[in-house]
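User: Teach me something about this protein's shape.
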Amino acid sequence: SPADSSWNLEWRSILLNRCWEHLETTERQNKDNFGYSALRLAVDSPDATSPELAQRLGAKVGREVTPEAFRKQVSRARKALAQHLVDEVRQTLREPSAEALLEELAELKLMEYVRAYLPENR
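Assistant: First, the predicted structure itself:
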């Protein structure tokens, strides 16, 4: 139903915001972690190249960031975001079986964020 889908959209948005906040907090607490900033740049500028984004990140954090280091930070941040998202969703389930978790992630259209990090894909 339309009410259902708007509730799902709202809930999905809340979950994603929590996960972004978690990444941001992690970055603030760890001087060598630029995952939040790197992923934000990558998401906000999907057409930019790694060297361009690495340069922007370097300017933000006040030190040189190589394209390789930038990609590593993005990769780690994507994984952390996915893990946090799975944890957040799992906590909302009455019976957090693997099947129920996958159903809920699919229902909330969150699979694109977590698919690559689910156990059966390792």
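Now, about its shape. The chain is about 75% helix and 0% strand. The chain has a mean pLDDT of 92. If you'd like, I can walk through any region in more detail.
User: That's plenty for now, thanks!
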